[in-house]
Task: inverse folding
């Protein structure tokens, strides 16, 4: 049987959920995740989604999206306080309904929840290196494998971001005269895998046009690189996406203008002045 | 009566858990256990950093050299020679500890109470000729000081090869191929803090051991440059193993580094290496008391191997205001100040007690080599204020006479506990169960009969 004959669920989000769930299971069983985060995050995210849909009388949109957001938050957010995970989940899901431009939400919910909490309290943080080498290798293989096998993982934004990020890092390693293991070690980050395949790839919060999406991914990677090596910021990729979010409606708008110009080519109404 | 006895048993069995942070302190595993270990205190708040560096250098003093990349040229006031006692105090306060409980008489119904016991060339370097020579090799001597028993130079370099050659020519004993390790720092325009022992001053001061060097600086980077580390002749923490044959170093092998991070808001972890906690609060057999050091060394090595020799191990996180149980009393405000904790300005900040003071100590144990730690250690301060300590519990059974029905039940529970303790010890250290049984002597849990023995009886 060939791979393409496998009957995979039609909604790619199911595959993403399966992937994230296995990642969370590995994290819960072997690493130092707190058990109490997950139920709080999931409950708040789902409740917020249902409440907003009822309150705004919106058509049912299913619960897959808040579930994916919850997975992202559980895996990335670290805290020692009970109220931080629910707050992050609430802000994340609420942002989808409130932070909108021209009828479209443009901030990545999990990214927004995470960054808002890190801004609000020092008791929220990210631990980018908290997965050991073994699970991480497995994760990369799985994520890349899924990318080959299924379109849900084959997002051009992910590829463009990953490509630019690796290129920038490799260039720096070469410039500093370091060796290949340094580059490999820099890619050994759980947040990088999650960010690449489950955060920046979200089609709802990236520009609509392909060229704009690729440009967006490149800008996020470049900004993250600058944040890390010029401003020495922690969690540069997370902050870069947060800061670049306003580019999404801007790029969409530019694209619409360009498209409308193409549809109505400019006709030169110009005549020589009569002598 | 029956109810009263049941209650007594429940209290006995639950005592260690109920008093998870009590117990009599009986032993500790300090940094001296580990050969070739260096200790560093890293005080940081905002961009301000005070670094205290100490190592157990054993070779001839004339061969000692310390090369540390620093973000800027330091003035004389930014350098200080500290007291070894400060690091010894930090070590004693934060080392992994063994605590003991003695089971109460199972025949007496009472609340179990746990105890809380807070219980030579640098001189020449100043001459113009030497400065000129250095310049020709692309090295600039930005400043030169003699502080305590050390001659200190602050260098900037245009090329790592030139710097390596100059250091070697000037009599600094640095490992071969050091230029590869120096290169990234040169490219990032970092300066080099270079220290040597001034034998004359050292004799005058009369100290037997080298005192720790302290430097204070501001930098947005919260990191520790282990790739260069201490480049002393014996290989010490010499991680200049960026060179092509790191394993060929004098006495190769991984180095132990203990980092005491003192911060204002919470626990410190690495942002580029996995940071794990040493398995703690485990009940171990009584014989461990005889050689707690050996046990802890094995437990650390086991944990380090389990995480692919790439993880940083957290051994202690506690608010500096108190401890429970105390391996040693917390550091005094004056000692903290000496270490560089600069933010303890108001009397309210110096109040001690379980409410805590605004200083958290994180003790990180790094066992590193060139292969598994390709990059310098980067850190981040988290807001995590949960206390943690490497703590092992030893239970002494009740030895008095027992004359009640609960006796049998109690003895069975002790046997079960010993069985559990043996397996816990095996999983913590990787020692074989057979070996553990032998060392437990008469306390060893009896081999249970195979299940089929009683099948057809």
Result:
């Amino acid at each position: 049987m060939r791979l393409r004959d496998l009957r995979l669920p039609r909604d790619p989000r199911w595959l993403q959920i399966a992937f994230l769930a296995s990642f969370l299971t590995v994290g819960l069983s072997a690493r130092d995740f707190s058990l109490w985060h997950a139920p709080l995050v999931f409950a708040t995210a789902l409740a917020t989604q249902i409440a907003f849909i009822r309150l705004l009388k919106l058509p049912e949109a299913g619960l897959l999206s808040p579930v994916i957001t919850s997975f992202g938050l559980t895996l990335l957010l670290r805290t020692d306080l009970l109220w931080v995970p629910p707050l992050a989940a609430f802000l994340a899901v609420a942002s989808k309904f409130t932070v909108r431009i021209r009828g479209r939400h443009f901030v990545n919910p999990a990214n927004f929840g995470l960054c808002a909490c890190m801004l609000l309290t020092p008791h929220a943080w990210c631990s980018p290196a908290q997965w050991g080498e073994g699970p991480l290798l497995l994760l990369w293989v799985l994520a890349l494998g899924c990318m080959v096998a299924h379109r849900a993982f084959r997002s051009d934004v992910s590829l463009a971001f990953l490509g630019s990020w690796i290129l920038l890092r490799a260039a720096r390693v070469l410039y500093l005269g370091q060796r290949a293991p340094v580059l490999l070690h820099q890619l050994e980050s759980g947040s990088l895998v999650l960010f690449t395949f489950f955060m920046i790839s979200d089609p709802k919060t990236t520009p609509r046009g392909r060229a704009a999406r690729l440009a967006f991914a490149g800008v996020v990677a470049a900004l993250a690189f600058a944040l890390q090596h010029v401003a020495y910021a922690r969690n540069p990729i997370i902050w870069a996406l947060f800061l670049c979010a306003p580019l999404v409606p801007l790029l969409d708008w530019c694209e619409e203008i360009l498209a409308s110009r193409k549809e109505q080519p400019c006709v030169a109404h110009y005549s020589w002045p009569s002598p | 009566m029956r109810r009263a006895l049941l209650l007594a048993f429940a209290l006995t069995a639950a005592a260690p858990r109920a008093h998870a942070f009590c117990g009599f302190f009986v032993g500790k595993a300090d940094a001296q256990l580990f050969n070739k270990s260096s200790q560093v205190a890293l005080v940081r708040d905002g961009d301000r950093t005070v670094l205290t560096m100490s190592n157990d250098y054993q070779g001839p003093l004339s061969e000692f050299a310390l090369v540390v990349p620093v973000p800027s040229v330091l003035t004389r006031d930014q350098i200080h020679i500290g007291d070894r006692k400060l690091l010894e105090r930090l070590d004693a306060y934060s080392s992994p500890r063994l605590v003991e409980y003695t089971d109460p008489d199972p025949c007496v119904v009472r609340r179990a109470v746990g105890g809380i016991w807070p219980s030579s060339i640098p001189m020449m370097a100043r001459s113009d000729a030497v400065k000129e020579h250095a310049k020709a090799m692309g090295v600039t001597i930005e400043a030169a000081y003699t502080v305590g028993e050390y001659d200190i130079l602050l260098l900037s370099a245009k090329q790592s090869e030139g710097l390596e050659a100059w250091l070697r020519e000037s009599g600094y004993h640095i490992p071969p191929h050091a230029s590869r390790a120096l290169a990234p720092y040169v490219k990032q325009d970092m300066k080099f803090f270079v220290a040597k022992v001034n034998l004359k001053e050292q004799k005058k001061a009369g100290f037997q051991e080298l005192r720790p060097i302290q430097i204070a600086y501001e930098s947005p980077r919260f990191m520790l440059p282990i790739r260069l580390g201490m480049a002393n002749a014996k290989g010490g923490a010499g991680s200049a193993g960026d060179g092509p044959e790191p394993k060929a170093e004098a006495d190769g092998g991984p180095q132990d580094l203990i980092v005491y991070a003192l911060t204002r808001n919470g626990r410190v972890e690495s942002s580029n290496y996995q940071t794990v906690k040493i398995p703690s609060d485990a009940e171990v057999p009584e014989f461990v008391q005889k050689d707690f050091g050996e046990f802890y060394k094995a437990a650390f090595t086991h944990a380090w191997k389990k995480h692919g020799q790439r993880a940083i191990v957290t051994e202690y996180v506690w608010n500096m205001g108190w401890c429970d149980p105390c391996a040693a009393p917390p550091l005094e405000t004056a000692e903290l100040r000496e270490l560089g904790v600069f933010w303890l300005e108001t009397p309210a900040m110096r109040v001690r007690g379980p409410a805590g003071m605004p200083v958290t100590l994180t003790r990180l144990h790094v066992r590193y080599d060139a292969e598994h730690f390709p990059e310098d250690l980067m850190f981040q301060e988290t807001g995590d204020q949960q206390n943690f300590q490497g703590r092992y519990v030893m239970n002494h059974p009740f030895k008095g006479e027992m004359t009640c029905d609960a006796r049998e039940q109690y003895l069975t529970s002790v046997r079960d506990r010993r069985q559990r303790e043996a397996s816990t010890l095996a999983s913590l250290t990787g020692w074989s169960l057979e070996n553990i049984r032998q060392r437990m002597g008469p306390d060893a849990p009896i081999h249970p009969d195979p299940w089929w023995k009683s099948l057809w009886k």
